[in-house]
Amino acid sequence: MPHGRSTVKNRVENTMKTVLMISALSSVAIVFLIGFFTLKESIPAFRGIGPLNMLTEKVWRPGQDSYGILAMIAGSGLVTLGSVLIGVPLALGCAVFLAEVAPKWMAEIVRPSVELLAGIPSVVYGLFGMVVLVPLVRGIEVPGNTGFGLLSASVVLAVMILPTIASVAESALRSVPRSYYNGSLALGATRWETIWRVNIPAARSGILSAVVLGLGRALGETIAMIMVIGNSVIMPKALTGNPLSIFLSRARTLTGNIAVEISYATGVHESALFATGVVLFLLIMIVNTSARGLLKASIEGGRRK
Amino acid sequence: MRKLVQNAAFTVFWMAGLGAVLIMLSVVGYVVFKGFADITPEFFTTSPRGGLSGEGGIQSTIITTVYLVVLTLLVATPLGVGAGIYLVEYADQARSGFMKRITSAARFGVETLAGVPSIIFGLFGYALFVTALKLGFSLASAALAGSCLIIPVIIRTTEEALKAVPDSYREGSLALGASRWETIWKVILPSAFPGITTGIVLGAGRIVSETAIFFVTLGGSYRTPTSLLASGRSMALHVYYLAMETRAFDKAMATAAVLVVLVILMNLSINMISRRITRDTR
Fold first, then answer.
1. Which of chain B's residues have a Cβ under 8 Å away from the Cβ of A110?
2. A61, A259, B119, B136: which could join A66 in a potential S-S bond, CB 3.0 to 4.6 Å?
3. Which of B:102-131 have CB within 8 Å of A?
4. How far apart are the two ends of chain B, measured CA to CA in Å?
């Protein structure tokens, strides 16, 4: 009975379509739930302490009801800055090398290495930092330097953001039409002049978005940071007259603040940790949205040309 | 002179490329060689006994990691693959405004989640699963929070795998009178299967490496969990506890070495699957 069969078929068809549609909504549902629960739990803190107070107050001392997160914002900011200073030149160098300079056999060694760096668990980076880097940094003879602090954390983080930046920047460079390169060579420019004056400027916004994406990664890293940054809730400050010695200071990141204290916090303290999460989430959303905007601009720019 | 500048510049880029290889080799090399120096077969077959020197092996943490990966995939795979199918196979027939809105909402969700740091998933898991749903620090809480982390990963790879299936397959099957779902089930999914598998392995790898989420949802007991509501310790989490609380760096390094080898094997299997895919489609 063909009629009956097709009704069954239709019913299966419609059921599956609905089931699939519901699973498609899972991602938005998660975003919504994350937003809802984090905000809901943070309301008592924002109400009781005031958002502006939290953001501008330096002292975080839950025992005495002081919940300022400025020190952690400074910690996250400085370690991100440090990792960008160290990691970006290396990552962009890798990207240019892979896209323009490396012979094929060499690219086939470098690319998997970078991919593997992306796969190493952050707890392993943290352990490596504790066992290898921290003792090295401790060797710098400055009073108050324990090895744990912004410098060790910046180096670890620089390696962790390298794969993200290198791979996004490499694909930005690769999306520059080959005709630009050939045209420039035909006009008598050397390969290097072409890369520097033609390819890199043409891939500019893609490269910038790679850096911004790396920045987002850096702000969100948790475990490796807890392990090497020292976790002291203090405004990072220079240990000697040299302003660069600020990187030898111990610090705490926003992410570390949440992870270290959440499992035993209660009441306003717990709520203040959720508020820390809201601040972190907003910071990262701003960073990622701008990266996405830049990436779109670079794709559209490429099409226009 | 111009040639000289070029040579200088290229030397710098070679150094950057070699630098990346060197960093990888020194991290992996150090952890693997240092770690495996302490590993005996008993390391895998005994469980941690607690205590200050981090005595014992890692058996219970291996079991917990396996439980966690299986549970997470049980939740995340159907949802992630289902979402991927919907976005690729049904989104194009989105004529009504309602369906268009669902598709763009789902895309927004995937894009946003990709940038959310894992500690936020942890914080959310703590608020919803540990506290509000009263699951406590447990395998269940950790697996649910972990699923949120890997659902977007699976959605993305599923989408890519489905897009790689030639349209002629779909047209051929529909022309023979199959319905859309029959086409998906009998034609498209089998040929996209290897690609979807890479997504699942990728997700499993994320769970094996993840620490922050489980630090705030899994509890950290070093005993083998006996129920979904029992607390536990994955291998990655064990490394953290050994390094930060027990200060047993040798044991931590040994566990980290096992973890790194596991991650390398997973990377290799993903590469092998994708290589087979490109060969077959050629």
1. 17-18, 20-21
2. A61
3. 102-103, 105-106, 108-113, 115-124, 126-128
4. 46
Enumerate the residues of chain A whose CB falls inside 8 A of the CB of residue B112.
31, 285
Place of tokens 């803190």: A45
From residue A282, alpha-carbon distances to A4, A35, A38, B28, B242 in Å are 55, 10, 12, 34, 33
Contact A26 B83 (CB under 8 A): yes
Smallest Cβ distance to B128: which of A33, A262, A277?
A: A33
Pick the CATH number of B37-281 from 3.40.50.670, 2.30.30.40, 1.10.3720.10, 3.20.20.70: 1.10.3720.10
Best to test chain A binding among B13, B147, B264 (most A CBs inside 10 Å): B13
The token pair at B174 is 């529909």
pLDDT tens digits along A190-215: 999 999 999 999 998 899 999 999 99
Apex A185 CA angle, A179 and A191, nearest 5: 110
Indicate whether A302 pLDDT > 70. Answer: no
> Cβ contact (<8 Å) for A110 and B27?
no
Show me where the domains of chain B are located: 1-36, 37-281
CB proximity list for A108: less than 8 A, separation 6 or greater: none
> Is some CB atom of chain A closer than 8 A to the CB atom of B95?
no
Which of helix, strand or coil describes residue B9? Answer: helix
Q: Which CATH class is domain A49-304?
A: mainly alpha
Q: What is the ipTM of this complex?
A: 0.93
Residue B238 has pLDDT above 50, yes or no: yes
pLDDT in tens, A1-23: 445 566 887 888 889 988 999 99
Beta-carbon separation of A127 and B31 below 8 A = yes
